[in-house]
Amino acid sequence: MSDNGMAVRPDGTVELSGALTFETVPRFFVQSGSWINGAGAITVNLKSVTRVDSAGVALLLEWRERTRAAGRELTFTDLPEQLRHMIRVSGLDAAFAL
């Protein structure tokens, strides 16, 4: 996986790396078209995300809504502390099960 990337594993795990920011979110959004409407549960692993801004949080919420609409379960794992902080100050703890 590159510095800014998305790797989709056969087991339904999606691994993100690098920045999840205004500059990178459009590319991540386009790439999600390949897995968002499939079947089965999805786990998005964020352990290799190095930086997040509000656009990144918005993308994660969008993925949550799209997978819910498709009848799929979505779990976020290994959230970096910066992302956890942004979620808390935004009052989104319940949306991310924090």
Automatic annotation (TrEMBL):
InterPro entries: MlaB-like_STAS, MlaB_ABC_Transporter, STAS_dom, STAS_dom_sf. Coiled coil: none annotated. It comes from the Bacteria. Residues 14-98 form the STAS domain. Gene3D superfamilies: STAS domain. Pfam families: STAS_2. This is STAS domain-containing protein. It comes from Candidatus Muproteobacteria bacterium RBG_16_65_34.
